[in-house]
Specification:
It comes from Buddleja alternifolia. Residues 11-76 form the J domain. InterPro entries: DnaJ_domain, J_dom_sf. The chain has 122 residues and is mostly helical. The chain has a domain at 12-96: Helix Hairpins, CATH 1.10.287. It has five helices and two strands; from the N terminus they run αααααββ. The protein has helices at 12-15, 24-37, 47-63, 66-75, 85-92; strands spanning 112-113, 120-121. It has a two-stranded antiparallel ribbon. The longest helix is centred in the middle third of the chain and has 17 residues, at 47-63. The chain is globular, with a radius of gyration of 22 Å. The protein starts with 11 loop residues before the first helix and ends with a strand.
Length: 122
């Protein structure tokens, strides 16, 4: 991370309470909901609320911009040990290569088909 980011990693998807494959619309709606909930004007004088509000704004700034979001997703700080299995699979499913993702069918090209004259390899 560069110097302008905090030394502790914030998962912007968790900050905005959205899934890792959330649509732009879902990100926008959750941002609005959280911004209203944590707005400093509603909690005058509470520095923790102001910090939370700033964190929400920072997360939205990154996730609402397609270029920044792609850079964040590709170059983020992946603290894998801090994810549950479900979160991990959701977060990294775009990077996990599967047979279908590569366009390979489930049957191998070396599958042995039984035939009446014996087995043949296709």
């Amino acid at each position: 991370m560069d110097a302008k980011h905090k030394s502790t990693y914030n998962d912007y998807y968790k900050v905005l309470e959205v899934d890792y494959d959330a649509t732009d619309e879902k990100i926008r709606l959750n941002y609005r909901k959280l911004a209203l909930k944590w707005h400093p004007d509603k909690h005058k004088g509470d520095n923790a609320v102001t910090a939370k509000f700033q964190e929400i704004n920072e997360a939205y700034t990154v996730l609402s911009d397609p270029d920044k979001r792609l850079e964040y997703d590709m170059n983020g700080n992946y603290e894998i040990d801090k994810y549950t299995l479900r979160e991990y699979l959701s977060r990294f499913k775009g990077m996990i290569l599967t047979c279908n993702g590569l366009g390979i069918s489930h049957t191998s090209i070396w599958y042995v088909w039984p035939s009446s004259s014996g087995a043949s390899v296709i």
